Amino acid sequence: MQDEIVVRKEIEIDAPVSKVWEALTSTNYTKKYMFALDVESDWKAGSPVVWTGDAGGVKTFRKGRVLAVDPRKFLRFSDFNPSTGAKDVEENYAHVSYELTSLGDKTMLTVLTDHLNSDEARRKDSEGFWGRVLPALKKLLEKQ
């Protein structure tokens, strides 16, 4: 059995946890730092999560479910991209976790992506995605 591939990224953001949480879970923010993607969910365990948009001229649709939530502290959801051509079955859904740690007026955000089926291409895509998204989130929140 191969080792599970995990992508872990951390970033310190000069904004309170409440603001970072809002930015992670609200379309008002995701459109500004996450490749113009809208997100829809009520962020309750078991609820759907749907990402839609026109990212760089490419229509985007992704879906998943909220797996666990502790507001302003922790969020875990599944994520499936139908455009990959993979079957829409649980083993093809990545799992993404956001962990927020208060550092006074700042926040440490840890993003963990796993359940990648030991697929190196999916790891590289995830590394690249979060490598662009997290600095954009930081810049957006710190300029407010």
- Low-pLDDT windows of residues: none
CATH superfamily: START domain
The name of the CATH topology is: Alpha-D-Glucose-1,6-Bisphosphate, Chain A, domain 4
Oligomeric state of the chains in view: single chain
Output mean pLDDT. 93
**Biggest sheet statistics:** 7 strands, antiparallel
Q: Using the CA coordinates, give the radius of gyration.
A: 15 Å
Question: What is the straight-line distance between the termini?
Answer: 47 Å
SSE pattern, N- to C-terminal = EHHEEEEEEH
Describe this structure in words.
- Helix content is 27%, strand content 40%.
- By secondary structure, it is α+β, with helices and mostly antiparallel strands.
- The chain has one domain: Alpha-D-Glucose-1,6-Bisphosphate, Chain A, domain 4 (2-Layer Sandwich).
- The chain has a 7-stranded antiparallel β-sheet.
- The longest helix has 23 residues, at 120-142.
- The model has no long low-confidence stretch (mean pLDDT 93).
Summarize this, please?
By secondary structure, the protein is of the alpha+beta class. It has three helices and seven strands.
Blueprint of the fold:
Blueprint (H helix, E strand, L loop, with lengths): L6 E7 L3 H9 L1 H7 L3 E4 L7 E8 L2 E13 L3 E6 L14 E10 L2 E9 L5 H23 L2
Descriptive keywords:
27% helix, 7-stranded antiparallel sheet, alpha+beta, 144 residues, 40% strand, Alpha-D-Glucose-1,6-Bisphosphate, Chain A, domain 4, single chain
